[in-house]
Amino acid sequence: VWLLAGVVAGQACYSVYVGGDSWEWWGGANRFLCVAMPLFFALVGLSLATFARALSAATDWGGPKKATAVMVALGLLTALQVNSYQFDSFNSVSQTLLLSEPHELSRHASMLRVALSLKETTTPSARVAVIWAGIIPYFSERQPVDLLGKNDRTIAYGPDNPFEPPPLAFFVSAPVPYCWPGHTKRDYRYSLREFSPDVIQPWNGMQEIEDVLKDQYVLMRLGDEQLFVKKGSKEIKLGESSAQQSKAVN
What is the pTM of this model? Predict the structure, then answer.
């Protein structure tokens, strides 16, 4: 028990150390804690087993009816808890029961199609500058360049440049004026100068490098998304249909 609890507590401390996750406004979602959740569930299971034994012993003095009432009340409380933490729930109960599509599933599918398109239209040595630093690099199997400070030490230790006010009113009560960990550190000019990516995924604030993009890149549609593709790059192998798509986008 102490070993499991120690690992879970360690992950919680790490999450605090790095400033938390950017999705905590979404019902408290925290990806740093996800890796330790199976151990947490094991602890919950042990707790329930201990409680069940104690409740079984309680029937000797409280009677089976009282014990049953307690179990029903706990069951209802558990069902309520499934949705109670999701103050902006995105229908979490229906998702838990597999009655509705998980939030952002269609967006994830779109990024998957982009990744597979990149795998077909670029060479294995191509560099892809991304914001979605998970799906696209994993399925495209291309070297990623993270445009944010999540995987780049230089950007991570650079200045904080928030794009906009907090995404939800949840942050109004936060101890800092703006809190979106991992998404407010960027240096697009550094990323382009240092890594010279062949493909760039557009995102907020890229008007900062509008001159570079107009001079060195062309905006094209690849899969379901628009991407900046470097002019004359030898790592890009686009066909005639892709060129037509490029003209349509421009």
Answer: 0.71
How far is residue 114's CA from residue 7's CA, in Å, rounded to a whole number? 36
Q: Render pLDDT for 127-157 as a digit per residue (tens, 0 to 9).
A: 999 998 899 999 999 999 999 888 888 998 8
Q: Rounded to an integer, what distance in angstroms lies between the CA atom of residue 178 and that of residue 167?
A: 9
**How do 225-230 and 217-222 pair as beta strands?**
antiparallel
Cβ atoms of residues 136 and 114 within 8 Å = yes
Encode pLDDT of 99-115 as tens digits: 877 777 888 999 999 99
Retrieve residue 122's tokens: 């670029």
In the sheet where 217-222 sits, what is the strand order?
143-146, 127-130, 199-200, 225-230, 217-222
CB 235 within 8 A of CB 122: yes
- The answer to whether residues 185 and 156 touch, using CB atoms and an 8 Å cutoff, is yes
Helices (H), 122-172: 135-140, 153-156
Run of H or E residues at 114? helix 105-121
Q: Which helix (H) or strand (E) holds 124?
A: none
Nearest to 118 by CA among 148, 133, 140: 140
Counting every residue, how long is the chain?
Answer: 250
What single-letter DSSP state applies at residue 162? -
- pLDDT exceeds 60 at position 54: yes
Count CB neighbours of 1 within 10 A.
9
Gap between the Cα atoms of 248 and 64, Å rounded: 73
Q: Are 164 and 142 in contact (CB under 8 A)?
A: no
